[in-house]
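Bench log. Compound arrived from synthesis this morning; before running ITC I wanted a structural hypothesis for how zinc ion sits in the protein. Inputs:
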Amino acid sequence: MKLYNSLSRKKESLKPLHKSWVGLYTCGPTVYNYAHIGNLRTYIFEDVLEKTLQWNGYNVKRVMNITDVGHLTGDADTGNDKVEERARTEKKTPAQIAAFYTRAFLDDVEKLNIKRPPILAPATKHIKEMQALIKELFKRGYAYETPQAVYFDVTKFKNYGKLSGQSLKAKITAARKEVVEDPLKRNAADFALWFKLAGHFKNHLQSWSSPWGKGFPGWHIECSAISRELLGQPFDIHTGGVDHIGTHHENEIAQSQAAYNKPLAKIWMHGEFLVINKKRMGKSEGNLITLADLEKKGYNPIAYRYLVLNTHYRKKVDFFWGSLEAAEEALKKIYRSITDFALRWQKNKKVEKFKLSKRAEHYRRDFTLALNGDLNTPKALAVLHAVIDAKDVSLPEKMLLVTEFDKVLGLDIGKYRVAPKIPPEVRKLVEARELFRRNKQFARADALRKKITSVGYEVEDTPLGPFIRRRL
Ligand code: AMP
Ligand code: ZN
């Protein structure tokens, strides 16, 4: 399997660190709001990554953190804690806000056929591990304290900026443009490891005692601490959206490597943005669309998954409603074909035991090659369509292949694999229509077809006789 590593800027073969499993850490949501479809794009990419690893026979140990404290609205340790700000406006506790939006996130995940990460780690449950890491950073001279916070001194870390390719000087210049609320911060690019209940955060709602006084953790430290705790250090693959490259992941790398003198992760993978009218979908842009918005307009969430898979994860997806419409059409075509296969297959029950032909094996290999070439999902989808349309593979082979492919693609193909139960009254209509048709009474046949459509079914005439299926 080849994966593009943002750190080396090359495609690399995956060589797992452990014999029996691959460690995968995926930065999770900050649970203060509904996820937008841009966020969900990143989670779909990560789902495909996990399932591709499994397709290749790897056992995946996947961890996702849930950020329920410490993620500020401003980039340079400024602004408010996002979860807490929401709690204040909604007059709830931060824990209630986090629980509500975690649930909402998991609902979205389920609707998109994203496998729920088996290990979900809320930041607030790992404060001890974060403090241990900060202590280590003090011991090694990377951390310092002001009356307001504990910071990581980026000038002490030799490789700071390696992931993004930005020099420390450029980073510091960029960071200087931000409003710095703590005058004792040594360098503008230093980042907070721990905020104290002081100054701006005097009345912060969530806090824990620590060697540096009561307070709460910065955002970046949670991922370093949680991944080390649950996957060890280093682990195999770390992922997130491209916006994490410049700050969040750079900081995770700096903390973990500085504290333990070992890399944090071997392969870093980043999903590109979903954009709308050339602008990144994001809260500050005011252009958010949620999965619920798509559903309200009558779209199947899986059509959105299809749309996402149709672009390589390292390319931008330019979202517009027309492309969602097209994705839904493509999906319906797949469902129609699968239902027809199921109907035909029923008529040929004998062919249930079979060995894949060379041709069918070829398609399976093409599918694997597409995924293993840095998750080329558009190509994998093309193989799916090729199998459906193929004249050179048998029906049971098609059924078998598409069912297997769907373990990674997650397009709900299984739901259409079973021939639908057709109510007897619909069957009678179809039979009556068939009689009219044979007697060339086409107007009457057409009238019955309309009737069949109006009760939610459609009928297609094929050499094997009429096929009835539920309307999609
Ligand atoms: P957040 O909840 O803001 O931490 O974001 C959750 C995930 O969504 C992160 O991995 C981000 O990198 C990713 N993300 C944020 N905006 C977009 C976008 N417009 N397109 C794709 N991914 C995004
Ligand atoms: Zn993270």
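What the model suggests: The mean pLDDT is 93. The CA atoms of residues 209 and 215 lie 6 Å apart.
ITC booked for Thursday regardless.
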